[in-house]
Every structure is written in structure tokens, then in C-alpha cells.
Here is the input.
Amino acid sequence: MMSEADNLRLTGSLLYLDGVSVSFDGYKALRGLSLAVEPGEMRAIIGPNGAGKTTMMDVVTGKTRPDAGDVYFEGRYDLTKLDEAEIAELGVGRKFQKPTVFENHTVADNVLLAARAPRSVYATLFGGAAEKERETIERILTTIRLGDQRRRLAGSLSHGQKQWLEIGMLLAQDPKLLLVDEPVAGMTDAETAATVELLREIARDHSVVVVEHDMAFVRELGVKVTVLHEGAVIAEGSLDQVSADERVIEVYLGR
Amino acid sequence: MTALLSRLDRLGLAFLAATLICAILVPLLALAVPRGSAFAIPPYVVALLGKYMCYAILALALDLVWGYCGILSLGHGAFFALGGYAMGMYLMRQIGARGVYANPLLPDFMVFLNWKELPLAWWGFHSFAYAGLMAMLVPGLLAFAFGWFAFRSRVTGVYLSIITQALTYALKLAFFRNDFGFGGNNGLTDFKDILGFNVQSDATRAALFSISALTLALCFLLAKAIVGSKYGKALIAVRDAESRVRFLGYRVENYKLLVFVVSAVIAGVAGALYVPQVGIINPSEFDPANSIEAVIWVAVGGRGTLVGAALGAIVVNFAKTYFTGAFPEYWLFALGGLFVLVTLFLPKGLLGLVRARAARKPAAASAPAAAPAPAPAESA
Here is the structure.
């Protein structure tokens, strides 16, 4: 499918998907999806319901195994052969659509569990929280503006605060690639604006893939956009470019 | 140790102190106070209290997996019974030539079945240390093998509960068979002595009670150390949002496996302490209903609290002793009713009720501090 030149360019990609197909009981969620994200890039992925956005994230994070196609991270790691924990260890972080924080833990403990540190049973059973970890936690609590809420149970936070805490957990995990699923769903306008700012800040030293429905939010981000439809890419480029694309208008924006 | 003690909350310290006081006081009142005195504890009560202690240890073990990691094991009685059998085998071999058939090597039931030599599984059980080791090793290994497959294939929730139930039922059927080699239907009983002391004597009973209470205290400290570590925090996270923990890079199956094995070992120890105090172990200990009863103790006491689980075991069994004496026909109804009531009205168990009461007063005083803070976007 790919031309010679494309292949050469793609070897440097942080995330590289080629011809990925997934079907569930005959329903084709992804049909030959190809996508490349460069190191340091922030990318928005849009598409109507059922376009395969969440399935794509499931494939990248190891939750779903593709029926066909290649998924490479840093041009070296074949993500189709690794499980969730291994992929997370490589440096792929994921934020879920619904905020999933550990409700029975304090805000600080949520960040502690996410913070980059050895994940083995032995390390967590016998090693206390290192000084470096504590500093990381402090820094992140300040960034997500929950410093004065550290002792509160995460379950008692507001919806917006939970979203922020989850983003903070991803920062603590310090992944090379961050997958963010509908970060502003259910947020107020003010919260959305603050989230845009936060994501921009994160994108300075991380690669970020944002899946979003909200076109205003995508415009706000001002990054390269990939449009999915029925499990495949139909357009790619700036938001203005893809907005002008006939097929995009037909399947998505026109409705 | 001191670091751990300093981390215990008031409730934990009170529980620890109460357990240690019981360990000293009960033998004193049973042995040193003259019979007939109002403070004297009759020997049958000592045995009963010892039994409660063993149940409390089992409840603690169950709370560790269910309350902290969300693994609802409906087969923990199997680990308890296996520990019990290990101790029972030691006690059987201590009988020696004093059995009915006076065979110095073979227990009575083997002579009765016309066996000529001691089966391999019984080798080494003349040694107390070996039996004690087996009481921990066998439940631990079974839990390891079971957990290895179950957690790796991501069997969770009700499906896991059902296979733990099947596990204990399968063991029950196996132990029922005479040719399985563990006394079949009748199990192991008629014990004479333990480490040279008569199992039936008041002093031995009192000592066994003390040891059970001390073991409860030790297991409590161990469990506290586990749940207080970062590993314990990860366990709670697994209980509440398993896939999220996976995406953070934790190997959830290993986390579950360790706590499941530790819990099974603790349950095995409880069973090993239980058998010399009740004087018998038979396949009915593997009955699924026993394991379910243990779940009820934990639910009644308050899961995810350790102290609550242990207290729940003691309270429910005390009620059971009373009910089965006073209204024998109604006990099962009372137990069922209790479970329904607790599930509906006390999701956090008796301990949750006590805590809610205790929290109400100080909470009223510091209400402004507890009020929800503004959302980050507003404060920004």
C-alpha cells in the first residue's frame, strides 16, 4: 500500500500503524487503518460514532489484538505482541473517556500509583516512596491545581477535577506517547479552555494523540487532524483542510 | 516493627491490645482462678473461644483478598481445611500404638482398610515442624497453581467465585473417598497428644487458645503491613479499576497472585490451629457452605477493614453458638437474614456503622474544611 518514500519517512515515527484491521463478531471496527505519529507531535483524531477511534486506542494499548496489520512503537516494538502492562512500561499512557481515577485513594496516592517507578510486586511491597517520587507528586499536584486537595479521596472530586487528576496521573507516568480519549466530554467551557492549555503544556515534551468529538475544542488545539470513518483514515491535514474535504463533509461535518 | 506499630490507627492498636490481653487473661482465668468463682472460665468455653480465634484468622485472610483486592473467594474453606488436615495427620501419627489396632505406624483407618504400609503423602508427618510447614505449603501451592491460571486468563468477578466454589467442592469429594488416603468420610479424629501434651487437658486447651490469639495478632500485623505498603495501595486500585491499573503498567495477575497465596497460607495456619482444639477434621470442612459462611462473617464485620472481618467472625459465631443452643431450628434463617440485612443496610458492616457514628461528631465541628473545594477551572 505504502510507497517507497513513505516507508522511509515512517521509520522515524513514534507510533506507526499500517493496514490494521479488527473485527468483532463480523463487525469490522477497523478496516486497514494506517496512521503515523511523529515524536513530539500532537495529533487530533476525529470521526463520527463508530468510526473506530476507541478501537484504535485499544489496539495501541494492547487491549485488543488486531486481526491484521502492523503496529510499531518507536519503529522497534511490535505492539501487537505485547500486553497492556508491557506497552505501558514502554511509555504509552492512556486517558479514558470516562474519568477513571482510584476513588478510594487520596489525590496524592492516585498520583503516587501512576508515578514512574518500578512496577514489580517486590518493589512496591518493600520499597517506600522515594524522595524523587515525592518531588514528582508535588510538582504534578501543583500543575493540575489540586495541591490543596491532596488528602481528599479522589471519589469526592468534581467531574472536572477527576479529569484533571487523571491527566496528572498520566503526567506522573511520564509516557513518551499519551493517548487521550475525549478529554473535555462533560466539561464546562471554562474547564475546556483550561484543559486545552494543560494539553498544550503537556505536548511540549510529550507526543499526544487526542480523540475528540468536540470540533470547537479541536480548533482550539490547532494541530494536525486525522479524520476516521468506518475504521479507516479518510483525510488528514489541518482542520481547515479536512473541513474542506468533500468526503469529510459528506460523512461527518455535513450531517 | 515499631515503624509498623506507629502506622496503626487507634482502632488497629485497640484490636491488637485486646487480642494480646485475651491471650494472657483467658488462660489465667481458666487455670489459675478456682472453679466456681464468678471469674473462672470453664474449659469448654476456652475451646470455644479458641475456635472463634481460628475463624477470626480465616476471616482476616478472606478480607485480605476480598476486601482489598476484590477477589471474592467462595472456597477459602478449602485452604483452611487443608491446613487442618496437615495438622490432623500429625496428630494421627502421634497416636502411635495407642490406637484401637495398636499399630505403631499406621493410623487405625489404614489398618481397617487393610493397608500394609504408610502412603507417601503421610511420610514425615510424625514431625510437628514438617506438619506445620505443610499446613502452610499445601494451601499456598494450591492457591499458587489455581491463581496462576485463573488470574493469567483474567477470570474475574462471579466466574472466579464459582470456580473457587468448585475447587472446594472437588476437594470435598476427593477427601470423602477412602482410597484417597485421608480417612475418607470419617476424617481424622481421636487425637491423643500434641508435642507430648494431652490435647484434651485444660492446660493444653488454654495454651492453644493463647497461641491462636497471638497468631491472630501476628496475622493482623502482617496484613496491615501488606495493605499499608504501596503494593497494598495497588491492590485497592485493582479492586476499584482493574484495567486502569494495567494501563499504568502494573502486572495485575502478579499482584493478585501474591495476595491470594498469602491469604491461603494464613487460612491454612488457621485450620492447623483449629483442628487440635475441636479434635476432628473431616471432609465436611470442605463444604462450600463453610466458605460462604466465612464470607458472611467478613461482610457482617465490614470488608476492607481487617479488624471488622475478625470481629465479624467472632460476633457471628458467638450468635451461632447461642442460636444453635437456644433455637436450633432457626439458626440458618437468622444467618440468612443477617446477611440480607447487612447487604441492604450496612454495606460497610458493623465496623462501618461504628465509624459513621464516631465520624459524625468531629465532622460537624470541622464542616467548613470538609466542604468541596472549587473546581480547578474556577480557581484558575
In short: The interface with chain A takes residues 226, 229-231, 233-234, 236-237, 240-241, 243-252, 254-255, 258, 372-373, 375-380 of chain B (CB under 8 Å).
